[in-house]
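Hey forum,

I'm writing up a methods section and want to include a predicted complex as supplementary material. The small molecule is flavin-adenine dinucleotide. I've pasted the protein sequence and the SMILES. Can someone with a working setup run it? I'll credit the forum in the acknowledgements.
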Amino acid sequence: MTLALSNAALQMLHAWGENTRARSYVHRPTTAAGLQAVFALAQHTGLSIALRGAGQSYGDAALNSEQIVVCLAQMNRITHWSPANGVVELEPGVTLAQLWRHCIGDGWWPPVVSGTMFTSVGGCAAMNIHGKNNWQAGNFAQHILEFTAVLPAGNIVRCSATENSDLFHAIPGSFGMLGCITALRLQLKRIHTGLVSVSALAAPNLRTMLQLLDENKSSSDYVVGWIDAAAGGAGLGRGQVHAATYYAPPFAAAHAQSLQLQHQDLPARIFGVFPAHYAWLGLRLANNAPTLRLVNALKYLSARLQHGRTYLQSLAAFNFLLDYVPDWKRAYRPGGLVQHQSFIAKENALAAYQQLLQACQDARLLPTLAVLKRHKPDSQYAVSYCPDGYSLALDFSAHARTRHRLATLLAQLDQIVVASQGKFYFAKDSALHPAAARASLGAAALRNLTVLKQRCDPENLLQSNLSRRLLPELHAPE
Ligand SMILES: Cc1cc2nc3c(=O)[nH]c(=O)nc-3n(C[C@H](O)[C@H](O)[C@H](O)COP(=O)(O)OP(=O)(O)OC[C@H]3O[C@@H](n4cnc5c(N)ncnc54)[C@H](O)[C@@H]3O)c2cc1C
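Reply by user p_vandermeer:
Happy to help. Structure tokens for the complex are below, copy them as they are.
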């Protein structure tokens, strides 16, 4: 198959956070052979290629200005499903929504999911995503039994724990820099109902919040902390912890209907009243400091009143809370939103996160969302970002009028994280500087990644706006 570069393929693509965009030659192969033809086209034209799954990365990880973007959304077939053992074979463009909807009726669930169900499994593998159960279930790639990748030179490699095991631990997490995953075999998680039992716990400050995440680790399958970033002084870092377990009562059959799709569908109305489709308008109206303070204070008050309450929630509702409001990023237009997510070892986390929250308050830039998770190390992968510790994700509006102040604040937050030997996660990044990215990866991992890059992609075809922004040395080794 021979392809030509056509202006008809020129298209404007956005980062999910709509904080940046880029025009590219977009190709949408439907087979591995079609993908190989795009690699041949890149070699022929001297252009680079960025891979793109569902385009749900917050920043520029799947953008490639004036170059080629290969969008894998049309390689989205589930090719084999085995309800007996929960093993699924699928193409990279299958979304998590497609996957869980296919398997839940048989009593299986993806063991690691992102906060939105609209990511693709290829994108989840390429970033080695984490869920609210990371300290226990590890990252997405830990549940891949085998995958196939097309390397930029056109050769196809099959990778598992026993075959090409170095690439099995290098391509996942390497943000699309080594090869394109074209097929995966995943092990799903057995579930007995489509429900989790959630305990809601109030935390009056950050120290208690971290303690609650830790204390609930052994008895829960998921833990997450929602922080009121507006609270200061003794209440700095206060908020609510949700600790959830897969619901498996002795008479699970009584809850069989919870495995049906209609039981998992997110509600069409918020609080049973407002059409979810227009709820972003409400978020937009609330997107200012006084309202954010008020909403956070009311949420914390409600957290105190609900302390210790336990309730059942569908797996989709618990895991994909952010999808309750379709297209909620519209609340941030026209500047978009930026997320700062940092990963810090447990010994340094309290002090570092207190500093981060205080810095936001001092800069008078309130995060619209602040979320804490618990992690375990993912150091078996060539690109690793999870420590035995915590992560804090902070969402900010990128208004034109505060853009400069926000850039200054983000640089300050990065310094605090680097000084605490913390790490960053490229799937969420929009603003990191190369020095911080290198510190996050570590010199040895960067050297190793550069060697792998030369081996898998000697002509340097795979690039993205993010890779050139953060790690230019990957594309121009000495
Ligand atoms: C609302 C929201 C909530 C989120 N919550 C979480 C969360 O809880 N945990 C978490 O870890 N992340 C989270 N994310 C981030 C998201 O999971 C990652 O950015 C993920 O990589 C997006 O998948 P995608 O299919 O959209 O990939 P894209 O954004 O399209 O691409 C991501 C990267 O993968 C590469 N890539 C894509 N497909 C392939 C392939 N087939 N082979 C090789 N490389 C490929 C791309 O080049 C790019 O570098 C969230 C994102 C959003 C928008």
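Some notes you might quote in the supplement: Residues 289-306 form the longest helix (18 residues). The mean pLDDT is 95.
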